[in-house]
Design brief:
- The complex is a heterodimer.
- Chain A has strands at about 5, 10-15, 20-25, 30-40, 45-50, 55, 60-65, 70-75, 85-90, 95-100, 105-109.
- Chain A is mainly β.
- In chain A, strand 6 and strand 7 (about 60-65) form a beta hairpin.
- Chain B is mainly β.
- Chain B is about 0% helix and about 50% strand.
- Chain B has strands spanning about 5, 10-15, 20-25, 30-40, 45-50, 55-60, 65-75, 75-80, 90-95, 105-110, 110-115.
- In chain B, the strands form two sheets. In chain B, strands 2, 4, 5, 6, 9, 10 and 11 form a seven-stranded mixed β-sheet that branches.
- The radius of gyration of chain B is 13 Å and the shape is globular.
- Classes of the chains: A mainly beta, B mainly beta.
- The interface of A and B includes residues 45, 46 and 102 of A.
């Protein structure tokens, strides 16, 4: 089993739609969780950290479920510019950041 | 946010030659840096963890004699792809952890696109 798993998609949604991604992790000792956005041929950019209490940043909401060992990302009112690959990342022992395979999102007009 | 500079951003080299990629933390000290490789349409795969002043820790399946890592200072780690072959063509990205903020996100360099011909 991979340490961090994501549905690769792609997710094809119309503008204005709400879309949600999930990501599961296997190491119960993991401490920190993140969502990154990666555009084609570029390095990943941090989208948001994920806290136990959940956090929201504009149209983006991230949640952590430690009991079930998954994190989620919700995007409301999708924009064309949201089209990208979304990577979940987990800091496991030794502060290694392990990435999921990424979920590709295409938002269409 | 913290800045990590990676150089070069792209390189084309002949098969059999070696290529060195540098990763620098510009405004913080990084005890730990990570090297990733990403093939087209695939995920970032962790290759190795680079620790300042000690030997790198390589992930399973990554040849340490082929991918030489040196982390001689708190702001610089280098990855040397030795005797590169076309199958080594990939996107290599480094990331660094701020020594003073170890449990936060890692900061990425811009990546190096290596093409071996």
């Amino acid at each position: 089993r991979k340490e961090v798993e994501q549905d690769p998609g792609p997710f094809n949604v119309p503008e204005g739609a709400t879309v949600a991604f999930n990501c599961t992790y296997s190491n119960s000792a993991s401490q920190s969780f993140f969502w990154y956005r990666q555009d084609c041929r570029k390095e990943p950019k941090l989208l948001m950290s994920v806290y136990s209490s959940g956090n929201e940043d504009g149209r983006f909401t991230a949640q952590l479920n430690r009991a079930s060992q998954y994190i989620s990302l919700l995007i409301r009112d999708s924009k064309l510019s949201d089209s990208a690959t979304y990577l979940c990342a987990v800091n496991s022992g030794g502060f290694k950041t392990i990435f999921g395979a990424g979920t590709r999102l295409f938002v269409k007009a | 946010g913290a800045v990590v500079s990676q150089h070069p951003s792209w390189v084309i080299c002949k098969s059999g030659t070696s290529v060195k990629i540098e990763c620098r933390s510009l405004d913080f000290q990084a005890t730990t840096m990570f090297w990733y490789r990403q093939f087209p349409k695939q995920s970032l795969m962790l290759m190795a963890t680079s620790n300042e002043g000690s030997k790198a820790t390589y992930e399973q399946g990554v040849e340490k004699d082929k991918f030489l890592i040196n982390h001689a200072s708190l702001t610089l780690s280098t990855l040397t792809v030795t005797s590169a072959h076309p199958e080594d063509s990939s996107f290599y990205i480094c990331s660094a952890l701020d020594r003073d903020r170890m449990n936060t996100e890692a900061f990425f360099g811009q990546g190096t696109r290596l093409t071996v011909v």
